[in-house]
């Protein structure tokens, strides 16, 4: 995956935002490999998209303009187990207008699920339930299979919290969500 992303970035694409998107994809790959330094370096390259002029940003299918970087950074830190950094980035993402209540259900639901995952990793049932319930509400309101799948993945993180009746009830609610 990294090799293909690097080849795409090196093509001299007419649209400069593509190389920043590639850096974001690389950050995801490095996080999956557990390489914090490489992930952060790639995220820094991705964040440079904010310095581009409006006519340099892809308006087509890619639409990579940096608006999602806080949520992506937070998600990468969750993958890496850097929970404090993850929580800071995800809180910044939730404060963005684009993720305000009533806006993008899919994006907000994903961030809320990541916040619940942080709670699970910390064994904080209150955090798991608070963020998980809000994400379930968004999944139901939007019919988003993506959020439902993310929530189902969250159940794998419950570990010993499964014994907490509130977390068990959350898991049962998640199981009722459909994932087209």
Overall description:
There is one protein chain. The chain is built from 9 helices and no strands. With 180 residues, the protein is mainly alpha-helical. The protein is globular and about 50 Å long. The two termini are 26 Å apart. 38% of the residues are buried. The mean pLDDT is 85.
Topology of helices and strands:
Elements: H1 2-10, H2 17-33, H3 36-47, H4 69-80, H5 83-95, H6 105-122, H7 125-142, H8 145-155, H9 165-175
Helix pairs in contact: 1-2, 2-3, 2-4, 3-4, 4-5, 4-6, 5-6, 6-7, 6-8, 7-8, 7-9
- What is the helix/strand order? HHHHHHHHH
Largest sheet: none
pLDDT averaged residue by residue: 85
Radius of gyration: 17 Å
Number of helices: 9
Distance from first to last alpha carbon:
26 Å
Share of β-strand residues? under 5%
Could you give a short description of this structure?
The protein has 180 residues and is an all-alpha fold.
Features of this protein?
180 residues; mainly alpha; 9 helices; 0% strand; globular
